[in-house]
User: Fold these one by one.
Assistant:
Number 1:
Amino acid sequence: MTDLNHDNLTTADEADFDNRDLARAGSLVVRMARSDVECVEAQKLRYEIFFEEMGARPTADVAASRIDTDSFDPICDHLLALDESRPEGHRVVGTYRLLRQEIAEAHQGFYSVHEFDLEPMIARAGPNHRFLEFGRSCVHRDYRSNPIMQLLWRGIANYLAHHGITMMFGCASLAGTDPDSMALPLTFLAQKFRAPEGWRVPAVAQRYINMNRLPEGSYDERAALRALAPLVKGYLRLGCWIGDGAVVDEPFGTTDVFILLPVINLPERYASHFLGEGKEKLARVQF
């Protein structure tokens, strides 16, 4: 297997990247958060969507602050979509939380370990892959359209190229906590997008929910696709693989599945411009 050479980034490199616009369309711009104030604005958007709109149950502290935050926020990078035509303090209209492998290993690990067993995947990858965990993604209700998701993913593609990331992963959520009521989309994901052997990350044993709930060929695949959230459908279009088993997240009112997305699977319109020759290098890494 090809061993990737990841050059160390200097402080100046990082500062230049953080101050750069990663994607733009009209008044919409995607870039990294540049201050604690902008991070808090993203956390307020997360609270609005996860707790007020989607009905997640906040802790007393989170409810009092009306900010969605946890112990991972200080060590993560925060990708923002901003509408510069909006008033100051209300410009963040989309966000992704990004946690690189070297940062996770230097602190408290990855967020997903509470739901999925990552150790075999990371051990199998060895030095040939560099992981990025994505999460806490959301977009303001007035901006949920294909253009803003394309801008966010152009920003992520820039981030991948800058940091030499080869594999992305995270949890994607289906609304609801009754797996039987989600038999159609869960089965569809398990049967049509299952990760290859060796990359099939399982849900932790004590929380494992079988996703394969319907006989193969017994359901309408188009109806199953329609039952998925737009964000999950977006991951499928990007070439993601699905892990083994789902997990019910009662506080957030969701059923979570594991998303694994090799960078080499990204469609050309996202990858070629930003990764350039790096995409050819990644193509030599065996999966």
Note: Confidence is low (pLDDT under 50) at residues 1-7.
Number 2:
Amino acid sequence: MTELFRAFLNVISVIAIPTLIVVFLGWGFVKKVKVYEVFVEGAKEGFQTAVRIIPYLVAMLFAIGVFRASGAMDVLITLLTPATSLIGMPAEALPMALLRPLSGSGSLGLMTEIMKTHGPDSFLGVLVSTMYGSTETTFYVLAVYFGSAAVKNTRHALPAGLIADFFGMIGALLICRILFGV
């Protein structure tokens, strides 16, 4: 059963992106949209948005740096380790679970460090890379998008994003445990 599930996931991972590209191009053709021109226009808007969000990005990266350098991340990990032990999450993966909602580059660096230490094919290496792909940089996304759109009241966006991150982490743990039998 596990081998069949692995084979299914391998097939999906190979065909997912090319299928999406073909579907988008096909849909644009059917709707008579000039796909390339629309793509270029979107790229122009993306550049203008990037210029507008730089101050929010700098502020977010500074706050993350202060959080990590102050030792607050280590204290939070120490407090949460007993709870993660109950669900079978290795303590070494907890920094990824905590840092991923804050910073994409920080969590990428952490994932790289874990892979150098434990190996990319180790359970921990596969787990943190699956966590990386299963979650979002929620605080960063909210700061950037809401900041660029000047949204003041985020309502339920933060709780919804953090809940999605939590279930992404739990899902990554469960899938890795099923596929690797650890």
Note: The helical segments are 2-30, 35-69, 72-87, 94-99, 104-118, 123-134, 138-148, 157-180.
